[in-house]
Amino acid sequence: MLKMVLIGAVAVPAIAAGSVAATGVVVVDVKEARGGQHIVVPVPLALAQVAAAFVPMEKTHVRLPPKAVQYMPVAKQVLAALAEAEDGELVRVEEPNEKVSIRKEGDLLKIQVDDNGEHVKVQVPISLALSALPESGNQFSASQAVWALQHARLTEIVNVQGRDGERVTVTVY
Amino acid sequence: MRVKTLGLAGLAALMLAGTAGMARAQGPSGKAWVHVRVEEGPRQSKVSVNLPVSVVDAALEAAPEEIMSHGHIHLGRMGRHDLTVSDLRKAWNEMKATGDAEFATVEEEDQKVRIARAGNLMLIHVDKTDGEESVRVEVPIEVVDALFSGQGEELNLRAGFAELKKRRGDIVRVKDNHSTVRIWIDEGN
User: Residue B25 above 50 pLDDT?
Assistant: First the structure.
């Protein structure tokens, strides 16, 4: 009997941990400047997905303007073509104290903005962008976007460093 | 005169933009990239855009029907001068038969415009007399020919690009006293 209890005590957390690991976790890491607070918030994707399902539809769906709907197929085609294209720098803007770069590296679109001491890095897997775009209709669903993060496993999707040393990172595991 | 110059530059830009989009990532030109560089001196600003031709192609293929229709673009009448694609096609058919020639040279107080054919290239050059501004558009003859292979008021962009993608090098250069613009195609990114 004790053996069964022990197995249950180990198996339940193990299955829970396995499920979370299998569906993914988003970790938001916020570090304040000058030795301030350090907050780490892990959010299991499955939990976020479930939570999104309980939120009223009008709160999680963004109605797209007609022009955006009209150009949605263009966006999809461009992303699909980009996924198959050679790697390289697509856009570079340089101004005094400001630099913007958009590069394609493998499946990643890497966006880097340096603006007067602030640094923003965003990495978006093209497959994520493709699956986040609505298949049809004129609505963008937040839960669909959350689910699309599955395509960004093991990727630091956002890294923001402020002028004073504060830092925010969002990583999908 | 200014309207005519702008019209020609606009048409050239439209042809280039449109045909650049019709690229196909196939064969030897499969890795071709379209490059755009804009530099503004006083603002110390530099903008570079590099796009695989396959990406621009995909964008145009998926473009809404009202803009594109089966690789053709419908221009209609251009501005108040009623210059139609049919008119341009007729003029082009006349011009291309003449071989190397100066089709138009217009000298004004402040600028000189030259439209000519030199070998395989159609040249549109605009130079300000003070030497501070110039526009250079150089398009292979075959590209213009292919563009005008459409019917009526349509330009055949797909055919135009099929020719343009063979070109490597500058297509457009614009320089004025504040900025420079360069558009070209090559194999590198």
Answer: no
Map residue A22 onto helix, strand or coil.
helix
The residue segments making up the domain with residue B178 are: 2-186
Q: What is the pLDDT of residues B97-125, one digit of tens each?
A: 888 888 888 888 888 999 898 888 888 89
Domain count within chain A: 1
Cα separation, A51 vs A143, in Å, equals: 9
Collect all residues of chain B within an 8 Å Cβ-Cβ radius of residue A93: 45-48
Residues of B near A (Cβ–Cβ under 8 Å) read 25, 31, 33, 43-52, 54-55, 57-59, 61-64, 189
Domain membership flag for residue A151: no
H or E element, residue A5 = helix A2-23
Q: Tell me if A165 is assigned to some domain.
A: no
Residue B189: what pLDDT? Answer: 76
> Nearest residue on chain B to A75, judged by CA atoms?
B59
Residues of A in contact with B51 (CB under 8 A): 90
Q: Which parts of chain A register pLDDT below 70?
A: 1-2, 4, 8, 11-22, 59-60, 136-138
Question: Does residue A167 lie within any of the structural domains?
Answer: no
Closest chain A residue to the Cα of B43, Cα to Cα: A95
The answer to whether the beta carbons of residues B186 and B37 sit under 8 Å apart is no
Mention every residue, 6+ apart, whose C-beta is less than 8 A from residue A16: none
Residue A158 backbone dihedrals phi, psi, to 5 degrees: -135, 135
Most confident of B22-26, B39-43, B57-61: B39-43
* For chain B, the helix, strand and coil percentages under 3-state DSSP, each to the nearest 5: 35, 35, 30
Domain residues for A130?
A: 45-146
| Partners of A24 in the β-ladder | none
From its phi and psi, is residue B39 left (phi > 0), alpha (psi between -120 and 50) or beta?
beta
Alpha-carbon distance B133 to B150, whole Å?
Answer: 34
Does this complex have an ipTM over 0.85? no
- Residue A170 covered by a domain: no
- The DSSP call for residue B79 is G
Cα separation of A54 and B165, whole Å?
Answer: 52
